[in-house]
Design brief:
Number of helices: 20
Mean pLDDT: 91
Strand content: 5-15%
Radius of gyration: 22 Å
Oligomer: single chain
Low-confidence stretches: 1-5
Shape: globular
């Protein structure tokens, strides 16, 4: 027992999606830096994506490893080799993917006793209810990793309690009650859990929500200075066993760490950096709508034309694969790359986002406002151009634009449903994109004040995980909690 107490072993079990894998691997790196033994549960194809970046960024004297499980894709009705949610081709397969994730329990439990030293704790991601029973079986604590921020949770919680959104029409504005700040929304912008128009996965979402409500200890990728009042709101509902340890992406400090975080970049980094070096400081717009953005070509064309008409240099990230075939056809037929060759770069596939955002030439980050991307923009000290699409992203837009005042909105009026993007009209227009970019790079007082706030918040974010910072202290408290729990 004494050796176990000295050698705490954290097992991290993420949902296999880029937005969950990346922060949990970063959290694992931070735990290893704090002297813990870390095992991240993954699958063969996901391990290939992440192993080299971890080997580069985790010093050899730290104890960090992957435990590979065979993902039962075919048994769950998924295509062979589908081991990550970014490979799902249609909304109909989301349920299958969650079912496959639930079938990992027996494999993991068979391998549990082979892990040395014996695991001290399980940290699990969303929709992995089997980890509750496994933790009980092996009599170790199980903690939940919340991939969203406290502001978004507070908004949803206040609406679930008050139900004010249920008495208004789709585009009628209402105020979210009892929040520290005045937050106005419309029903059209709410996440699916509060939406009446997406019944097909309601049971899946409600199951995720029910699991979250049973958690006794929660780890959040945020930092106290970012969401001070909303962390208090979160703890009022969830209790005191909440540890804010972010922004976890800030553990990637070197240029190589930032370049290789996640998958192998689909662009030559040295060429990219040379291009950025030639641009004026604070002039380049980096546009990326996330790893699972499924917007139609028509919608993405508006984004491309807005970037082009802004007269700012830009980097535009678009997906590879069949979902981008129509967009690629438009790019080719309209000679778009030739038109923008003096001022723009298109990255197809995986982008070294942290490396780009940390470059001095970046003047704005046009993002879907997923929580990971939002935090990465905040940590880089870059103003945000908010283009939310679904889930809790409209909440995050409110946080960065109206509460933190470090962003500008593109003006998207309604959420799309993930996997049903082709059922919606234009969510953004080129004129709105152009206007938002011009506003964020404006040299007047409003623009300068926004940039100053973003820079100051970026410095606070990076310091939070350093020794003496709020997140560093919370990480130490989390470790002590686990130590006490296994005595």
């Amino acid at each position: 027992m004494a050796s176990q107490l000295n050698q705490l072993h954290f097992v991290l079990i993420p949902l296999f999606s880029p937005g969950h894998l990346l922060p949990m691997i970063d959290m694992g790196k931070l735990l290893a830096i704090h002297g813990m033994i870390v095992t991240v549960v993954t699958t063969p194809l996901n391990a290939i994506k992440f192993r080299s970046s971890v080997e580069h960024s985790v010093p050899s004297d730290l104890k960090f490893q992957f435990l590979e499980l065979r993902f039962p894709a075919v048994e769950a009705g998924l295509p062979e080799g589908c081991e990550n949610m970014d490979q799902i081709s249609s909304r109909n397969l989301i349920r299958n993917f969650y079912n496959a994730s639930g079938m990992l329990q027996d494999q993991f439990e068979e391998l549990f006793e082979t892990l040395q030293p014996r695991p001290s704790c399980i940290i699990a991601g969303k929709n992995l209810s089997w980890t509750i029973k496994t933790a009980e079986k092996f009599r170790i604590p199980r903690l939940f990793f919340d991939g969203m921020g406290c502001f978004s949770f507070s908004c949803t919680h206040k609406l679930e309690v008050s139900k004010v959104h249920e008495t208004v029409s789709r585009f009628e504005t209402f105020v979210v009650p009892d929040l520290p700040d005045r937050v106005e929304l419309t029903r059209a912008k709410l996440p699916e859990i509060l939406s009446r128009g997406s019944e097909d996965l309601r049971d899946v979402r409600e199951n995720i929500r029910a699991i979250e409500l049973t958690e006794i200890g929660i780890i959040v990728n945020t930092f106290e200075e970012l969401e001070t009042e909303y962390i208090k709101e979160y703890k009022k509902v969830k209790g005191d066993k909440v540890w804010c340890i972010g922004p976890v992406s800030a553990c990637n400090k070197t240029e190589l760490d930032r370049a290789e975080r996640g998958e192998k970049a689909s662009i030559n980094e040295s060429r990219l950096l040379k291009w950025l070096d030639l641009k004026e400081p604070g002039s380049v717009i980096y546009a990326c709508l996330g790893s699972i953005c499924g917007l139609t070509a028509t919608q993405l064309v508006e984004l491309g034309l807005g970037l082009e008409s802004s007269n700012q240099p830009f980097i535009w990230v678009i997906r590879k694969g069949e979902k981008s075939e129509e967009l690629e056809k438009w790019v080719w037929e309209n000679e778009f790359e030739n038109r923008i060759k003096e001022k723009g770069i298109i990255i197809r596939g995986w982008s070294p986002q942290l490396l780009i955002l940390s470059h001095k030439s970046i003047g704005g980050f046009l993002t879907h406002c997923g929580w990971n991307s939002t935090l990465e923009g905040v940590s880089a000290g870059v103003p945000i151009i908010a283009c939310p699409l679904f889930a809790e992203q409209f909440y995050n837009e409110k946080l960065v634009v109206e509460v933190l005042k470090i962003g500008v909105s593109v003006g998207v009026e309604a959420a799309v449903l993930w996997g049903l993007e082709d059922k919606f009209g234009l969510v953004m227009k080129r004129e709105q994109v152009k206007y938002a970019i011009e506003k964020v790079v404006d040299k007047g007082k409003e623009g300068e004040d926004r940039r100053k706030r973003a820079r100051e918040l970026g410095k606070i974010a990076r310091n939070a995980i350093e020794k003496g910072g709020s997140s560093y202290i919370n990480m130490e408290m989390l470790i002590q909690y686990v130590r006490n729990a296994i005595i």
